[in-house]
Amino acid sequence: MQGVLPTQCRDFMNKQYWQRFFKKIKKEGQQNEFFEWYGNYDSYNHLFKKYIKMEDSVFHAGCGKSLLSEQLYDNGICKNITNVDYEKISLDQMRKRSENKRPEMTFQCMSLTVEINIQSEQFDVILDKGTLDAIFPDEETPQVNAYLANMLRILKKNGKFIIISLLQDHILKTLLQLQVNIQIYECVIEKSKLYPFFIVIDKSEQKSIQFYQLQKEVQTLTFKQAQEIIKKIQLQNHFVTSIHKLRQSQSFTLDIWDNNNKQTPRYKLDIYDNDDSKILLQKTCGCFIVPQGREQSFLFGTEQGHKELIKQMKMSRCVIARMNPGHKFNNMKQVQQELSEPMKQLIPKGCTNIPCPFLTDGDEIGEKNIIFEADDCIVEELNIDDIKYRRLIIKSALDLIQSEAKIINNKVDNSYLDFEAYVAIVAGLAFNKAKEVLILGGGVGLLSRFINEHFGVKVTNIELSDDIVNIAKTFFDFKNTESETLVCCDALDYVDQTLECHQYDTIIVDINASQANQLSPPKQFLSAEFLNKLRTLLTPQGIIIINVLDSQKELTQLPWDLYYSRKCENEINEIFYLINAQKEKKELDGKEIDVIDKGLLDAITQQLKDSRVNFSKGKWDNSMNLATEIDNIKLKHPVFKTQAFQTQEALLVQDGEIINNRKEFYQEDLKKVQKKKHNRRRKN
After folding, report:
1. Helix (H) or strand (E) holding 116
2. Nearest to 295 by CA among 374, 386, 393
3. Which of 37, 384, 420, 624 is most buried (CB neighbours < 10 A)?
4. Rounded-to-integer distance, Cα 484 and Cα 469, Å
5. Taking CA 627 as the corner, what is the angle to CA 624 and CA 630, rounded to the nearest 5 degrees?
6. CA 244, CA 44: separation in Å to the nearest integer?
7. CA proximity to 80, closest of 168, 156, 165, 190
8. Which of 134, 78, 77 shows the shortest CA–CA distance to 106?
9. DSSP letters spanning 444-496
10. In this predicted structure, what is the pLDDT of residue 11?
């Protein structure tokens, strides 16, 4: 199968690639008397035994010259098998092989992409190994709808439709849109460069997507999550097969698992091939081990930091190894020994510095202890530069720290906030003199406690997870008081129940997505409908502060008239400050356009300036310069243009007069041009 897989990840999206793929794979089949698309019976026997019973009637769609039916029969899985294919010569050959040995097997020649003469609900199992991929090589194949409709019609109500497929994007999307119950298994075929998936569809009333990833527990996914995780696996599998070849600027990620822990990978490896062609030609390789507790620092926790580290390492291939939460690591020697075998698989062909060196920052891996572990989260303690920290990690998003507190004398230090995003959120209190704050997504209450203790503000926290509420009380010293409460409740429900009942000066939205690399907070919390509900909960001078984590650049603009923002420098978060301003509109060039009063902007600027003085007097940790943080808050929307050819997002009005009129800008620009011409003439 050499040359079948794509050489670049973008080829997975390419129609021509799939056409070449099936042409090559069919050619391979012609060279062998019996050809097995995507592996043989042994590759899936554990799954066949799980889903096929001896008494079942099986419809093998597109059987071709596969020996799968014979092997199911001979291994005692089932015998009542109907083999169907449109190619008569091959079908007759397979019939002759079995007519005496396997009397209960039958063969029918027919096309499955047109109406078929078979009664509805006739079969317990429909088996498709590669057939769907063959008849549906790209999204421009309408006959696939007839094929799937035929299969689902002849399948019994409680039957199983088993599909073995590479799950190209258009196939996965089509299957997920069937509104059926679907189970997907990741598979590995020994000595093969193909990585198919084993899919089981049934017509039960329960409609869900369950994914069985190798060495991991079953996951229930959304449509989008299923697409993302399967694409990630496909790209990872592709690079594993061609991993020994250096490619300029190539990068990918691998998880290294421990057989004793099927919930979280033990290591995460980020592999980078240098973008400098001269360094690439040296064919060197090295592994940098990130010390525990330093994962979120700029150098080790950001894309830009990784680029800087790669420059420092000066290797053709750089492997950045991270020790994941939920695992115990004794010393650097143990870590190097465990990474030695994976590194052998990652060494580029012709590598000139074998054995590859292991590098790190300092001599030790860092001290870390797991003090609590549940099905979905971990609480761990670690020492960084002789300072103890306590962390909450959500297992579905290992790259993110949900909460981190500094521990002094076994107590949470309430004068300190670790995250730059939290510091920026607190700086947002400078917009008004808040007396009451609502936090949606309260977590373990660290942000709440800081605001309550240092600003004397009453705080209500809403947290969805009952486990996290209990962790807050057990491991992060949270106690409900008259001025600070942590309520276990759905944020959407709480807002609906509180409408017209209560108002807050500041509402903070700090809700994490359920999976890594997803927009946080999820889109429903950034919709116009939800934000307008929050507006009704605000006092007249109230403000909404939203902590947004958008690694995929999904968010372009918030549905709000006037807001400021602060982009964190060492984190990928951006904090938005939504001003509760009255909306006005004017007609300009036949279109309605928002109107912003310059007096309001001036008042906000003055309020931030006044607050800066008060924020410089706080009794919090010296490392948190909140006064300077206020200076980093800038107007985000609308943007007022200053040149005649630029279209305004909004009109800026002062004393009832428009001061960003395009005509006036044009006249100003014209004066500048005329002045330049006049100066040139004088020089001449």
Report:
1. none
2. 393
3. 37
4. 14
5. 105
6. 29
7. 156
8. 78
9. TSHHHHHHHHHH--EEEEEES-HHHHHHHHHHS-----SSEEEEES-HHHHHH
10. 42
The tokens describing 249, both together, are 């600027």
**What distances in angstroms separate CA 361 from CA 291, 329, 367, 449, one per listed residue?**
7, 16, 14, 34
**Does the bond joining 342 to the residue before it have cis omega, within 30 degrees of 0?**
no
Q: What is the pLDDT, as a whole number, of residue 682?
A: 64
The two three-digit tokens of residue 592, written as one number: 């309605």
CA dist 101 and 128 (Å) reads 23
Segment 93-115 mean pLDDT: 93
Strands (E), 131-239: 155-165, 181-186, 197-202, 209-212, 219-221
pLDDT digits (tens, 9 = 90+) for 316-366: 999 999 999 888 898 899 999 999 988 988 999 899 999 999 999 876 777
Alpha carbon distance 151, 170 (integer Å): 18
Angle separating helix axes 169-176 and 223-241, nearest 10 degrees: 150
| pLDDT, tens only, 370-412 | 899 888 889 999 887 788 999 998 887 777 788 999 999 999 9
Tokens coding 426: 């607190």
Q: How confident is the model at residue 671 (pLDDT cuts 50, 70, 90)?
A: low
SS3 623: coil
* Sign of the torsion angle spanned by Cα atoms 122, 125, 131, 135: positive
What does the alpha-carbon distance between residue 395 and residue 324 come to, in Å, rounded to a whole number? 10
Q: Do residues 163 and 201 touch, judged by C-beta distance below 8 A?
A: yes
Looking at residue 83, the DSSP 8-state letter turns out to be E
For residue 643, the model assigns a pLDDT of 52
Give the angle 635-636-641 at the CA atoms, nearest 5°.
Answer: 85
Q: What dihedral do alpha carbons 143, 148, 150, 155 form, nearest 10°? A: 170
Confidence class of residue 597 from pLDDT cuts 50, 70 and 90? confident
What distances in angstroms separate CA 370 from CA 98, 257, 259, 326, 660, one per listed residue?
59, 18, 19, 7, 58
β-strands 504-509, 436-440 pairing: parallel
Contact 289, 319 (CB under 8 A): no
Could you give the C-alpha distances from 485 to 414, 422, 436, 628, in angstroms and in order? 16, 19, 12, 30
Residue showing tokens 């010569």: 89
Own/partner long-range contacts of 280-283 (Cβ < 8 Å, ≥24 apart): 280/246, 280/248, 280/316, 281/316, 282/316, 282/352, 283/246, 283/316, 283/348, 283/349, 283/350, 283/351, 283/352
DSSP code of residue 55: T
The phi, psi pair for 554, rounded to 5°, reads -80, -30
d(Cα 316, Cα 273) in Å, to the nearest integer?
6
Kindly report whether the peptide bond that precedes residue 291 is cis, defined as omega within 30 degrees of 0. Answer: no
